[in-house]
Amino acid sequence: MRLIALVGMPGSGKSVLSGELKKKGYAIIRFGDITDEELKKQNLPVNEENERHIRELLRKENGMDAYAKLNSDKINNAIQKSDVAIDGMRSWEEYLSLKKDHPDMILIAVYCSQNTRIKRLSERTARHLTEEEVKSRDEKEIENMNIAGPIALADYTINNEGSEQELLDAMRKIIGELENE
């Protein structure tokens, strides 16, 4: 079974791709679900400030590869039954941990400019972010979560400055290549 990890800055298009992979039969493991579960446990409202607090707390308690560790059982159980896609891998340490356990993991980076992501995230109804929140989160993800490493080492990079259809076409091309290996 195949393991694909999607990495990219907030609003780059990872969730759109994971939705497409789900349609193709992949089990989807969204790393952000751990944050959502912890927010619910602590009875905190979903907003950028609380999400950041939880992300940083979990990494402080469990290490920088926290989300890989906390999702390890889900990944290992799912990969026994089907192909798996991870939506939202963030840190270099998560990449190293996953690559160690799954050396054939395929890493797909989704890229688009900060201005494009600001526009998309400000228009979202769920998990809406302001321009200031996007810029602040970008800084924290680069400085504190080491997201640049996995993006730089991706097996495939999709530029998502165009339409959703162009994004999906790029993903389908990659999946086609992988299926023909």
Task: Look up the CATH topology.
Answer: Rossmann fold
Low-pLDDT sequence parts: none
> How many helical stretches?
10
Q: What's the number of structural domains?
A: 1
Q: How much beta, percentage-wise?
A: 5-15%
What CATH architecture do you see?
3-Layer(aba) Sandwich
How large, in whole angstroms, is the Cα Rg?
Answer: 16 Å
| Order of adjacent strands in the largest pleated sheet | 2-3-1-4-5
- What is the terminal-to-terminal distance? 13 Å
Helix content: 55-70%
Name the CATH homologous superfamily: P-loop containing nucleotide triphosphate hydrolases
Q: What summary fits the major beta sheet? A: 5 strands, parallel
Short description:
The protein contains 10 helices and 5 strands; from the N terminus they run βαβααααβαβαααβα. With 181 residues, it is of the alpha/beta class.
Note down, in words, how this protein is organized.
The chain is α/β, with parallel strands linked by helices. The chain has one domain: Rossmann fold (3-Layer(aba) Sandwich), CATH 3.40.50. The protein contains ten helices and five strands. A five-stranded parallel β-sheet has the order 2-3-1-4-5, with helices on both faces. Helix 2 (32-41) packs across helix 3. The longest helix has 16 residues, at 164-179. The mean pLDDT is 94.
